[in-house]
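User: Structure with GBH, tokens only please.
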Amino acid sequence: MKFNLSFVLLITFIKDIHGEHCEKGWPFPQDFLIGAASAAYQVEGGWNASGKGENNWDWFTHNKPWMIADQSNGDVACDSFHKYKKDVAIMKDIGFDFYRFSISWSRIFPTGFANDISKDGIKYYHDLIHELRSKGLEPFVTIYHWDHPQVLEQMGGWINEMMVDWFTDFSKIVFQEFGPKVKYFVTINEPSSFCYGGYGGTSKAPAWNLPLNAEYLCMHNVLKAHAKAYHMYYEKFRSTQNGIIGIALPCNHYFHKNEEDSITPDIAFQYDCGWMANPIFSKDGDYPKIMRERIDENSRIQGWPRSRLPKFTQTEVEYIRGTSDYFGLNHYTSYIAVPVQKEVNKGWANDRGFYQIVDPKWPVSASSWLRVVPEGFGGILRKITKEYGNTPIYVLENGYSDTGSLNDLDRINYYYSYLKEMLLAIKDGCNVKSYAAWSIMDNYEWTEGYNAHFGLLQVDFNDARRKRTYKNSAHWFKNLLQSRTLLPVQNCTNNN
Ligand code: GBH
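Assistant:
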């Protein structure tokens, strides 16, 4: 495998310098950072090792296995709790600049609260960070990637405003302990994913299924928690630690259905991305106007005594606005936004007034929600730049799922076509500073279990040692990182 692909790339290169009909390579900007990403619950395992407490995903998968596609859980996952040195050695070999990983809250606070801190839990992340730095990789730390102590969930999870303080307590320990050796922090990964999936719907723990209500409350608290952690970092840690801190938002791109419809894609963007981004990155802060208007109107029509979209005070608006040093973008796919007219006495369909479809011509992946639409990546980078100005954009996740083959040409094509769009957007003036592939290895894909494979490395989940094997895409990245140039895949290799 390894030999084959290098050979093909070598031929590509030779043909290239001989000026045959290949697209030429696209160099990455200088200082551009390229990394790989993961999340604690998805890779660590060691669910009760060294005194770790139970978290919401432990509880959910153990007590409601039928909610998971293959009834599986993250008890062992990739066993990165024990195999982190191997992981780091592999990333060093591929040549990544940074590793984005998250901290397991219940590993640090086994009983859920700040009065009981686990030395072993802290030590694990010190060891991981040390291992990364000694191999020349930057640790890029996500404080929260969806797992929190189950006791906090019992107390309402993200619907309880106390979560703002609990999250701040946790963040404080993270900064205190790891901040001296970490230059890059993400407070919270993808608020809308767990607010919709966990509280509004059923695709994430705790699957409350209280749509058009609980997700709004969840987001309200998440934005406050993010802002509070950000301010604490600035007030107490930044001057000595010199890092940067931001938030990771999942933003799709939206196309129109009809040529003449210039507004629905923007409305869809505001609901999907603006819901989280507008309060933080816009000039005036707060939720997007369109959401305020439509949800307020629907709530009124439906006889609610107040809007289901909670309100920030002006002080809160200002407290949240500007609380991110960069725009952390997780982007995978695009949709077509189709408008739905408001119905008399009924208001806006789904609080939104649009629904989303896909173009059947867009290639599929192993995840029902993920179609391959590279031009949407350029689209969303330009849209974010247009909406929120020149804030640096850190792409913190982008990737493709398949059924797990080592010969993953579809994944290579996905990365090539998406990276090319990104480099074009940079040429057009988008201030993109980094890119992280999701994911370094196949892992526990939440309620999709082990069915969806996003990894550059295959993990043998039937092997107690969780053997890791390079896929062709890992070799492809290694080559890219050596040349710091995006070289064509298909154009040259298939047409010769
Ligand atoms: C990322 O979310 C996550 O940050 C990461 O942990 C995960 O492994 C990776 O994606 C791959 O999935 O189930 O139909 O309701 C990406 C954005 C938002 C995509 C939620 C899936 C749920 C669709 N995700 N969405 S559905």
